């Protein structure tokens, strides 16, 4: 393995820009929800299902793409994913019904899943351990810009065209990533050769699930990220519907949460020079659970948007310190099947999040319902953290 210092900044930025595709696909069209609903003759609540569909399709894409990436190489899977994503985006710009919108989002998400699952594997091919945690943090610092600017980009596009222009922009962005990756990440000889072990796709996934010490990390990531998925799904309702904010103010309020994630990600990068990933994950997860309780208070006692915002920023911000360290610790167990392992985690993270988001449509459309789901995710995150610590203690005891 190489050290982080030997990996060029060009590669870091290229991987970061590629990671931005997922947040762009979810957040750029959020300001267009009212326009999409009006154009298709449906409610905003129905349009929000397109986020749930994307998250669930993304998990399918990751699950199918992970083992293929381990077997046939990162380059083929990543390039194919970008092409599928782009084609689906151009299709979405022309849809005229909610059914076609959901179908297009499903196809788009599968391409996005194939793209997303390749990034952690490409990192694991190059570095491991503490260096991997730092690398994930560096990529996160680049990619986290996407959800901060995505709603603003979407709002700007709506000023010059209809909502279909948002999807045209997404498809064009995916195509622009191809030459960037070719000139940086895929420059020179292939970094990941075809697997000679003859292990089947199913065997790879079974092997991941048979690693008891790694299982807590899968659900820990899914739970901690699930609350953010719930927030993103209902962000338009929360800020524009419940708190009555304008489209421009919605963009600002949404960006505040992403700024918090960026700040915590940067802080995590600095803390890794003094502390181990396990220590940082513990503190960040406890802070996230506290934020979940504050959000419940905000809904129960009818706080203003300026009382709700700091609590939401704390919840979202902690992910900047939780996710990179969980991923680095988790992939330590899978040096030869990192893409398959990443696919399992991604499937749990986005699949369970998408399912929870879809099921939340059965609840009353209220702030209390949304923040109750977010708080439940925070409690689940703490439970998985304790599960992980118990598992680590048992492993240490057996070793001694």
What is the structure about, briefly put?
This protein is an all-alpha fold and 400 residues long. The protein is 80% helix and 0% strand.
3D architecture notes:
With 400 residues, the chain is mostly helical. It has a single domain (9-183, 199-399), classed as MFS general substrate transporter like domains (Growth Hormone, Chain: A, Up-down Bundle), CATH 1.20.1250. Helices cover 80% and strands 0% of the residues. The chain contains 17 helices and no strands. The chain has helices at residues 9-19, 21-27, 33-40, 44-47, 49-72, 74-92, 98-126, 129-143, 145-160, 164-183, 201-209, 215-242, 247-271, 277-300, 305-331, 338-359, 367-399. It starts with 8 loop residues before the first helix and ends with a helix.
Topology:
Blueprint: H1 9-19, H2 21-27, H3 33-40, H4 44-47, H5 49-72, H6 74-92, H7 98-126, H8 129-143, H9 145-160, H10 164-183, H11 201-209, H12 215-242, H13 247-271, H14 277-300, H15 305-331, H16 338-359, H17 367-399
Helix pairs in contact: 1-8, 1-10, 2-9, 5-6, 5-7, 5-16, 6-7, 6-10, 7-16, 8-13, 8-15, 9-13, 12-13, 12-15, 12-16, 12-17, 13-15, 14-15, 14-17
Provide the β-strand percentage band.
under 5%
Rg value: 20 Å
Q: What is the CATH top level name?
A: Mainly Alpha
Tell me the overall shape: globular
Question: Biggest sheet: strands, sense, closure?
Answer: none
Summing up helix and strand content along with how strands pair, one would put the structural category as mainly alpha
Number of domains: 1
List the helices and strands in order.
HHHHHHHHHHHHHHHHH
CATH architecture: Up-down Bundle
| Helix run count | 17
């Amino acid at each position: 393995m190489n050290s982080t210092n030997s990996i060029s900044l060009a590669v870091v930025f290229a991987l970061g820009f590629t990671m931005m595709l997922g947040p762009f696909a979810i957040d750029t069209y959020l300001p267009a929800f009212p326009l999409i609903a009006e154009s298709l003759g449906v409610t905003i609540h129905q349009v929000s299902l397109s986020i749930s569909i994307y998250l669930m399709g993304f998990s399918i894409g990751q699950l199918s793409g992970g083992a293929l990436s381990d077997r046939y190489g990162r380059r083929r899977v990543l390039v194919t994913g970008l092409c599928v994503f782009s084609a689906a985006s151009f299709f979405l710009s022309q849809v005229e019904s909610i059914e076609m919108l959901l179908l297009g989002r499903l196809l788009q998400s599968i391409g996005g899943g194939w793209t997303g699952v390749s990034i952690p594997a490409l990192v694991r091919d190059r570095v491991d351990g503490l260096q991997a945690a730092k690398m994930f943090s560096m990529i996160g610092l680049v990619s986290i810009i996407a959800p901060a600017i995505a709603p603003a980009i979407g709002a700007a596009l709506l000023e010059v065209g209809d909502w279909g222009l948002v999807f045209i922009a997404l498809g064009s962005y995916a195509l622009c990533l191809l030459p960037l990756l070719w000139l940086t990440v895929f420059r020179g000889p292939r970094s990941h050769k075809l697997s000679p072990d003859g292990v089947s796709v199913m065997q790879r996934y079974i092997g991941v699930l048979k690693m008891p010490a790694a299982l807590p990390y899968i659900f820990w990531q899914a739970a901690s990220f699930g609350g953010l998925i719930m927030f993103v799904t209902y962000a338009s309702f929360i800020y524009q519907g419940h708190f009555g904010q304008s489209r421009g103010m919605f963009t600002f309020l949404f960006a505040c949460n992403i700024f918090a994630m960026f700040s915590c990600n940067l802080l995590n990068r600095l803390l890794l020079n003094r502390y181990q990933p396990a220590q940082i994950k513990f503190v960040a997860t406890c802070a996230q659970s506290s934020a979940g309780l504050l959000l419940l208070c905000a809904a129960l006692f009818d706080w203003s948007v300026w009382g709700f915002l700091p609590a939401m920023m704390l919840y979202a911000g902690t992910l900047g310190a939780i996710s990179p360290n969980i991923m680095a610790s988790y992939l330590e167990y899978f040096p030869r099947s990192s893409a398959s392992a990443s696919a399992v985690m991604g499937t749990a993270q986005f699949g369970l999040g998408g399912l929870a988001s879809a099921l939340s449509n059965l609840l009353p459309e209220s702030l209390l319902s949304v923040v109750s789901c977010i708080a439940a995710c925070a409690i689940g995150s703490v439970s998985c953290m304790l599960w992980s610590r118990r598992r680590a203690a048992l492993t240490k005891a057996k070793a001694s």
